[in-house]
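Lecture 7 notes: from sequence to structure.
We start with the chain below.
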Amino acid sequence: MDTRYAYITGRTRALEARLLDKLKMERMIAATSAKASLSELEETDYGPYVSQLKDVNNFEGLLYDELKRLYSFIDKGSLDKELTDLFRMRYDFHNLKVFLKNEFKEKPLPLEELPFIDLGTIEPLKIGEAKKFLQIQKETTRAFEENKNPQDIDIILDKEYYRLCVEKAEESENEFVINLFQKEIDLVNIKTFFRCQTLKRNKNFFLKIFIGKGILTKALFLEFYEKEENAFLRKLSFTPYAKAIMGYEKKGLKGLELSCDNFFLECLKKTKLITAGLEVLIAYLIAKENEIKLLRSVLIGKINEIPAQMIRERMRETFI
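Predicted structure tokens for the same chain:
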């Protein structure tokens, strides 16, 4: 227990209790229209903002504002900002991808017109000038100029993001944050392995995408790469990721994506037993972001008149 977080843990627990549960999500899915689905939020923390929304098709602004309020709460409550900023840094890397891909176009757009997300640690319009990313930019530019493949930008920056996160977490010696990012890396690598297998990609392509710093080693993935996929599934069933792969056995890649997300969220639920600490704040941050993703999935589905059962099948678990 970290008593420094006693007060903010109490506040976080109160907010955690107000997260949307499965029943609320089911009511939104079962609603007769997108507008009726959105109205289910009127008696939740989203209520005051829903009432101001004139057109359900503009719901993205509502969710974006909720994310800004979330990160404002996290910033005020965190006593280890170098760690909670790692989650903001995901948006820096998103913005860096957008910036670099635009730079490599024949006719780059003005920065003001790019789809930046203003939730990172660096002002989006200044992302290209950020000193801490200059070396990464050089390496990414060199890789792109060799192959002229925009996918290389995503691959390099994803690897760099996770490398930085694990290194910062290790510097802090915070076992919870270290383990959290290592789990996330392992899950990404597991999904990449089966995606490459399905697409009949060779071992070298997998190695190019593989992200280091996880718990599962590169050697383990390579050992099973050219074997029957069932052999790797059996191997993973004897690791902590046994539940994460259940979706693949039932529904292939789509099922794997869902079961990996649910597994990660299930791991975070263990923080409910912690009396006070940074873990509670981080778990709430991820749970709230998960909730916002769920709302986006439901509302997009309702707007596009996708059958309720199809929306239901694609839904992640809720935190409560």
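Points to note: Residues 278-303 form the longest helix (26 residues). The chain has a mean pLDDT of 95.
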